[in-house]
Amino acid sequence: MDNSNNMSYQAGEAKGQAQEKGNQMMEKASNAAQSAKESMQEAGQQAQAKAQGAVDAVKNATGMNK
């Protein structure tokens, strides 16, 4: 392989490695975003359950739950 072909080959290898690294980083970012979304949904559900518990406690205390 002459020098020109070798340089072209190495450039292609470097490009492929950079693309793969970029894909891996995008996948990690996507996973982090999905995890954050799920955490926020869980936090929202917990807050909603606590609010409902507070409403039920007030209803019980005031006799509105009968």
Automatic annotation (TrEMBL):
Stretches for region Disordered: 1-66
UniProt biased composition (Low complexity): 41-54
Protein name: Stress-induced protein KIN2-like
Organism per entry: Erythranthe guttata
